[in-house]
Request: fold
Amino acid sequence: MAGFPAQRLSLEEFWHLLSNVIERGMITISNGIIYDYYVEKRGAGEPVIFLPAAGFYGNEGLNIADFLQNDFETHMMDLPGGRSLGIQARQITSLDMAKWLKGYMDQQQMNKVNLIGHSMGGLLALTFAVHYPERVNKLVLLDQAHKPFPRIPKREFGLFAYAIPYLNIGAVLLGKPFLKLLEPLFSDKDSNVDIDTAVKRFCETIAIKENAYIRKAHEQSVSFTLDTLNLYFGYYRINQPKLLAENTVPTFLAYATFKGVNEQENAYTCRHLRELQHKKSLPITYRPVEGGHYVHWSDDPTLLPEIKLFLKGRME
Reply:
């Protein structure tokens, strides 16, 4: 099943889109906006929604869903785009992201949920918690929102990162026609790499050990679409620490230290954490995780049990 919001449509456009998504089954229409969702579910009990990092489908959270399955029903959602419609706003805002997630909750008749999000998925979870706090029990952020996303994201894009600020200006001024021109630049050029090589390369880069969950997450290559690129620039423009400071929902922040992995990123993380922790009133439980960005795939044996205790309201 799948998910994303679209602009107000003409009747012809509406039926064309409907014919493309009807077989996937999970469609919501709100105020003339179509949302459809691709979701895998695991477990039974109180609902949890997991949102993944860019470049992965919802089953990036499968190890978390398996760990929680006796107490929680985890809905592992794909991000907007790829296997579902994208958010069709010209310039995606935090409210657009929150409304996309609200569409799924309304469709599933969920009054309140627990949210877990990693990386870009963490931002979508946070936007919902800020705009609709009355509908969130607990929020778990996996290495997300405690530090600004760099204006020149060299870790993600290498030398190409120096062009990102200028491309963002073009996206703001010219919208989707400009993004369409950029699409080939962001498409995955290694899509034909075999899974063994892809997993090995990923684990070496991120400094984590291979396991069945990482392999499972790499079995399907995420389709890169125009909607995906539009979402990325929406993500790029949001001041994440500022948004986190507006959050009133009880939050468990598991952040990567990057110690021994990337000392420059370690220093950047420490500096912004100190700034955040000066704001004593924030409802945040801080949890350092040794290693890199994919904290939920780390070797830390107590992280998932702590997340479960937090969701059940039993942490000291």
Q: What stands out?
A: Residues 263-277 form the longest helix (15 residues). Residues 1-7, 19-25 have pLDDT under 50 and may be disordered. The first strand starts at residue 27 and ends at 30.
